[in-house]
Amino acid sequence: MSEGYNHISKSLDTITLPQVAEKINVKDIESAKKWLNDKGIRIHDFPKTKYVYQIEVDSEIDKPFVQLLRNKYPDKWKDHYRDVVKDIAVYNLTVKLLENEVSPIPRVKCSIINKKDQERYKKLLG
Questions:
Q1: Which of 11, 31, 86, 99 is the most exposed place for a label (fewest CB within 10 A)?
Q2: For 54-107, how does the pLDDT look when each residue is reduced to its tens digit (9 = 90+)?
Q3: Distances in whole angstroms, Cα of residue 68 to Cα of each of 13, 51, 86
């Protein structure tokens, strides 16, 4: 493992909505709430304040960059992301979330071209 990782777990640190707004570069709390709702991040209530888990926000901030890595380096994207991420907990969460995303699979009906293809198809089906 890289020395750059934070060895002290921050996975349960919380941040307030104004801190989220600052982190994602929006001016008001309503925009931050909308962003959190769009990303599926739950806003928790505590007396006199609302908060979210920092790891969820950090993971959502990283996702677009990681998706670019995934497209550019399909076999090595995890290694590239691991090299630049600052918190191993964010790495683990982001990778798990991206691996569990449903990706569109083309649905193409295959047609049998000739008798040889038909025999191969029967062999494949067993």
A1: 99
A2: 999 999 999 999 999 998 998 899 999 999 998 999 999 999 998 887 655 555
A3: 27, 29, 18
Report yes or no: 93 and 48 within 8 Å, Cβ to Cβ: no
116 C-beta neighbours (distance < 10 Å), count = 9
Radius of gyration from C-alpha coordinates of the chain: 22
Beta carbons within 8 Å of 40's beta carbon, 6+ residues apart: none
Cross-strand pairs, 45: 50
Residues paired with residue 50 on neighbouring β-strands, in sequence order:
45
Q: How many beta carbons lie within 10 A of that of residue 104, not counting itself?
A: 5
Residue 96 structure tokens = 């798990």
| pTM of the entire predicted model | 0.70
Under 8 Å between Cβ of 66 and 98:
yes
Q: Are 89 and 11 in contact (CB under 8 A)?
A: yes
